[in-house]
Q: What sequence folds into this?
C-alpha cells in the first residue's frame, strides 16, 4: 500500500539512497525524488533512474508537493536544512530525519516546521555501515533492524503513526520514545561502542614493538569494525550527545576499574561472575539480531 504519494530524500548518502530504494521496492511511495548538496552525488542520483524519479538542484524544489520529506544529512546540518525548506512545504507534509541524536534536533525542527502546517517527527533507523555513500545503498539495509520514532509533542501523534507504518513496511522494528530517552539509549548501544572501538585501535597502534595488524584475527576485526566510520560525522554526534555519552563513559569506567582491580587482586571469582553476566547479555542479544 502506498503510504506517501511523493517522498523527497534530502541528502542521498548511504541511508538516504537506501531508504529511497526500500520505499520503491516495497511500494510505500508513488514517486521518490532527491536533492544532495554535492553536484557529483546529484549526478549519481540521476543515473539511478529506477530509484529516483527526479533529482533537483535545490532542496526547496525537491520538497514541493512532497507528502514525506526525510532529512539525511549529518546531524549538525539537519536544523539548518529544516529552516531552508520550511517555506516550501505543503500543509500536512510529514518531515523526519535519520539523525542519531534526537533531543536538540526534535526541539529545533519542531519549532521550525510545525508552524508551517507541516509536521516534524524525529526518526533514527539503527542501520548503516562503516561505508558511506550512495554507491553502497541497499534496499535491505533496514530489514530486521530497530528504528526509533521520537515525537516531541502531542500534535505529532498522527504523523508518528504514519512513520511507524512506513518504517515497518520497509522491514524495521519500530520503538517509540521521547527524544531524551532515545539519546540516553543510543549513548550506550551506539555512541559508546564507537568510542571503545576507536580506543582499541589506538591502543593497538601504540604498541611499540611490532605492527599488531598482521596478527589480528576475526575477534579484533569484528570488535573494531565501527571505528572505520567517518570521524567528521562522529564529531558532530558526540558534540550533540555529549552529556549522555559522558554518563555512559563514566558507567563503563566503573565497570572497567572493577575488572582491573579484580585482575590485580587475582579475584577470579569476580572475574568469572562479570564474564558470565556479559555472556548472558550477549547470548540474549544474539536472539534479536
A:
Amino acid at each position: 500500500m502506498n503510504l506517501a504519494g511523493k517522498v523527497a530524500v534530502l541528502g542521498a548518502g548511504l541511508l538516504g539512497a537506501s531508504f529511497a530504494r526500500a520505499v520503491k521496492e516495497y511500494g510505500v511511495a508513488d514517486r521518490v525524488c532527491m536533492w544532495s548538496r554535492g553536484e557529483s552525488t546529484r549526478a549519481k542520483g540521476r543515473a539511478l533512474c529506477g530509484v529516483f524519479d527526479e533529482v533537483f538542484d535545490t532542496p526547496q524544489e525537491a520538497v514541493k508537493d512532497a507528502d514525506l520529506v526525510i532529512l539525511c544529512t549529518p546531524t549538525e546540518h539537519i536544523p539548518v536544512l529544516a529552516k531552508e525548506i520550511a517555506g516550501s512545504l505543503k500543509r500536512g507534509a510529514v518531515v523526519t530525519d535519520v539523525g542519531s541524536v534526537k533531543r536538540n534536533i526534535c526541539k529545533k525542527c519542531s519549532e521550525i516546521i510545525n508552524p508551517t502546517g507541516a509536521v516534524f517527527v524525529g526518526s533514527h533507523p539503527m542501520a548503516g555501515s562503516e561505508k558511506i555513500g550512495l554507491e553502497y545503498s541497499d534496499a535491505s539495509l533496514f530489514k530486521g533492524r530497530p528504528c526509533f520514532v521520537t515525537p516531541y509533542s502531542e500534535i505529532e501523534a498522527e504523523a508518528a503513526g504514519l512513520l511507524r507504518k512506513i518504517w515497518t513496511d520497509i522491514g524495521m522494528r519500530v520503538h517509540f520514545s521521547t527524544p531524551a530517552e532515545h539519546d540516553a539509549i543510543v549513548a550506550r548501544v551506539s555512541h559508546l561502542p564507537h568510542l571503545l572501538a576507536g580506543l582499541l585501535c589506538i591502543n593497538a597502534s601504540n604498541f611499540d614493538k611490532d605492527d599488531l595488524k598482521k596478527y589480528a584475527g576475526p575477534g579484533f576485526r569484528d570488535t573494531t569494525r565501527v571505528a572505520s566510520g567517518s570521524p567528521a560525522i562522529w564529531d558532530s554526534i558526540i558534540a550533540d550527545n555529549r552529556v549522555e555519552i559522558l554518563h555512559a563513559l563514566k558507567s563503563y569506567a566503573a565497570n572497567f576499574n572493577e575488572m582491573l582491580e579484580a585482575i590485580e587482586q587475582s579475584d577470579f571469582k569476580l572475574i568469572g561472575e562479570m564474564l558470565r553476566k556479559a555472556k548472558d547479555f550477549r547470548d540474549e542479544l544474539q536472539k534479536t539480531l
